[in-house]
Amino acid sequence: MTREVPRPSWTPDSIPDQSGRLAVVTGANSGIGYVTARELARRGAHVVLACRSHERGRNAVARLRTEVPGARTELRMLDLADLKSIRDFAERWSHDRLDLLVNNAGVAMVPFSRTADGFESQFGINHLGTFALTGLLMPHLLAAPDPRVVTVSSEGQRFARFDMTNLNAERRYRTAFAYVQSKRANLYFAMELQRRAEAAGLRLRSMAVAPGLTRSNVLTGGANGTRGRVYGTLTRLLLRIAFRPTPAGAKSSLYASTVPGLPGGSYVVPDGPFQLRGEPVLRGRERAIQDSATARRLWLLSEQLTGVRYALPSEPPSGAR
Fold first, then answer.
1. pLDDT along the chain (321 residues), means of 10
2. Count of CB atoms within 10 A of residue 129's CB?
3. pLDDT on residue 276
């Protein structure tokens, strides 16, 4: 009787040399974003930390350079809750290309609020901000020889009831519903971007990831920091008991960002039960991956709301992936 050999774990040590690669990681001052930026820099990439807070971003850069001596990093300001900030970030881009964009920044389970442009904050930041940033950086991505866009969704998107008539809290607002809906939008966006890139014959590869249950400050920082002492104490206890360390959660993003030959349209998730923990694996059975009709409707609505239009075909052929 032969014994099955367990599949070896994929770790950041598996990342090939990233020298000469230029990457942007949004929300890179903490959590999964910081680990993603650090490990890319450790393997030789030039990493731009795109952060909303100058102080937290500056501290993150200093910490990264301490942990990775000689790292090539820089800090640039970006607030996905403000279309003007997103446009400023893109207009001030001073490099000749962009090889990798990791759309990591987002908010989770926050009280109701609206962005600077009047969008419900979870939909506005998690999806519309990501959509606008990627579109405005598209000329720089297409100037790279092998560009990738990695968008961080969530295992929670599986539970979304995607309501195109209530994406922006036009009616009632339910925190958890709005969150998982925004994360489903991330998955629709990543897949539709890949369809449009393929229809245009572009080299760009777009993929999405789910990190699994991961310790970060997304449930305790930002708008969630005002929810009181009891909320903060209980949430931090839950994170310590049920959620896995941040480096484990960053594996999906790093895998999608660096594995050679990974096909566009990939969805990378943990391989454990309910995608909550485990090693990175490709998953193709998600309904949202195949739902091109809803993805196309969301894309057109996103163009209308943000005013950002991509230099890609507006209507992929019906047979496109």
1. 56 95 97 97 98 98 98 98 98 98 94 96 98 98 97 91 92 93 97 96 96 62 51 46 72 97 96 68 89 97 97 53 42
2. 29
3. 65
Does residue 76 sit in helix, strand or coil? strand
Token pair of 2 as six digits? 């032969």
- Annotated catalytic, 231? no
Contact 71, 101 (CB under 8 A): no
Catalytic-labelled residue, pool 34, 179, 188, 255: 179
Q: How far is CA 139 from CA 48, 78, 136, 186, 231, in A?
A: 17, 18, 7, 21, 43
Q: Which residues contact 78 (CB under 8 A, 6 or more apart)?
A: 26, 50, 51, 52, 85, 86, 89, 105, 133
Structure tokens at 246: 């941040």
Q: Which of 42, 291, 70, 304 is nearest to 191 (CA)?
A: 291
Inter-CA distances, 284 with 264, 268, 278, 291, 299, Å: 12, 9, 17, 12, 21
pLDDT confidence of residue 220: 46
DSSP state for residue 258 in the 8-state scheme = H
Phi and psi, residue 154, nearest 5°: -160, 150
